[in-house]
Amino acid sequence: MDAIRVRGLRKAYGDNVAVGGVDLDVAHGEVFALLGPNGAGKTTTVEILEGYRRRDDGEVSVLGVDPAVAQGRRGTGPVAKRWRERLGIVLQGTGEFDELTVGEVVRHFARFYPGADDPATVIERVGLAEKATARTHTLSGGQKRRLDVALGIIGRPELLFLDEPTTGFDPEARREFWQLIRDLQAGGTTIVLTTHYLEEAEALADRVGVIAKGRLIAVDTPRSLGRRDAALATVSWRTPEGGWERTRSATPTAVVADLAARFAGEVPGLTVTRPTLEDVYLEMIGGAA
Amino acid sequence: MRAGPVELGVAQGGLEVRQFLRSREQVMFTLAFPAIMILVFGSIFKGTIGEGVKFTQYFVTGMIGTGLMTAGFQALAIQIPMERDRGVLKRFLGTPMPKWVYFAGKVLMVGFIALLETVILLAVSSLLFGLKLPDTPAKWLTLMWVSLLGITACTLCGVAFSSVARTGRSAPAVVTPVALILQFISGVFFVFTSLPAWMQNVASLFPLKWLCQGLRSVFLPASFGAHEPGGSFNLPMVGLVLGLWCVLALALCLTTFKWTTKRDG
């Protein structure tokens, strides 16, 4: 059984259809990235999976449980509680416990979970060891985000939702965060990630899904999304006159060999590129819009 | 390892109290306000209200009542919408924390503040203005149950009212006038029976009037009961009205409490 199974998910706010029939499967142990422009239905979809919102229609199973158990009166029941114990959620908001220290907040959240991790270890893992006794309002944007991640993983979740987790991170912090995600995955955690950073999706995700206008328009590995692996390569070089020339080819090696012969050695300004994930993504959501 | 229910509630309360104590200006204003008010009023009105009873003896009951209402009703009705806006509630909602723990934390915080505030008020009043503290165990007992029931009603009303303000920013504007008007019509600043009859009747619908009346039975001589609207302090009615408000507010809390903002769906 998959960690997440969604069939025909629908959600509308009045006349505005936010999610218009999404099917989705995420396997146990997988890192799945959900991409899509703002307002495409990404957050609505994820928050339905997290038990924050009701759906209008469709079947949803998250760790074998319908997230609707978290709604209304049932939300206080034992089924919802046991389900929540197995989830980790990192929301978008930050800066919520101004007057408390990092250590106090993490230790407090550890009390909610039967199999909680050691707070000091978790603080260390997210790179906040030096800030453990600092008030949370003194943290930088990126450090607050790390605290959010710490609270998301303190309960050793089977499934972790990360909503734009690295916003405000500097490049080094982002790399460290990626390593943390890889460690979590190695430990068997299933991860659903939404992000605006395509290189992040490419670095972390086993598969990516693209949501546009409330529909999942593509699901594939980052490498082959939008048949990117089969796309033509672009070869460009400088002409002896000083201008640029480029050609698209399925056999760029032959083109380069030909150029090398023509220039009798180094080809000035030679580049061979294939479409990046970003190119493919922008083309996709451009087509859907 | 997961904490037991009692430990969880106490830990949540500890967290709330710590947050309160660490915002210094909040501590100053909340704890010192009733004492400052008694300094101001005690210095202005030095007279008696009959039978040699000082005005301070009357005014202190209004100040205890106001302090309890501020700590319970006003503070929570403003603080909860702000926490809702900041996503604190949403974050708790996403954890296995039992929902009552959040409220237990608030109750413990309110109880802590109310107790401290009342002790400071009584200390200042008796040291500087010769306030006569209750002199029988029965009066202390009345003080305790009236305060406890009153703070419970105020706290529950505060939680219920927290769903009225749509945003944290609008909360003070929504809550403050309600609290202020109640203070004026419930006999906090003026002798209750000197208010127009219609105002007394309106005030009788709300808990603050009854809370203050119950407190007057503790701090004023028994003979003053004759000056009350019904000719006595009518403690059974105090208990009944405050109790009814607890039930009503609890029902509202259970049915209308919002964990997320409208924006969150």
Low-confidence segments of chain A: none
CATH architecture of the largest domain in chain A, by name, is 3-Layer(aba) Sandwich
Structural class determined from secondary elements of chain B: mainly alpha
Order of helices and strands of chain B, N to C?
A: HHHHHHHHHH
With strands numbered from the N-terminus, the spatial order across the biggest sheet of chain A is: 5-6-7-3-8-9
Instruction: Give the fraction of residues assigned to helices of chain A.
Output: 25-40%
The radius of gyration computed from the alpha-carbon positions of chain A, rounded to a whole number of angstroms, is 23 Å
| Overall spatial form of chain B | globular
Order of secondary-structure elements of chain A: EEEHEHEHHHEHEHEEEEHEH
Task: Describe the sheet with the most strands of chain B.
Answer: none
CATH superfamily of the largest domain in chain A: P-loop containing nucleotide triphosphate hydrolases
Q: Tell me, what is the CATH class of the largest domain in chain A?
A: Alpha Beta
Measured distance between first and last alpha carbons of chain A: 34 Å
- Contiguous helical run count of chain B: 10
Percentage of helical residues of chain B?
Answer: over 70%
What is the residue-mean pLDDT of chain B, rounded to a whole number? Answer: 89
Would you identify the regions of chain B where 5 or more consecutive residues have pLDDT less than 50?
none
Assembly annotation: heterodimer
The gross shape of chain A turns out to be globular
Number of domains of chain A: 2
Q: Briefly note the CATH topology name of the largest domain in chain A.
A: Rossmann fold
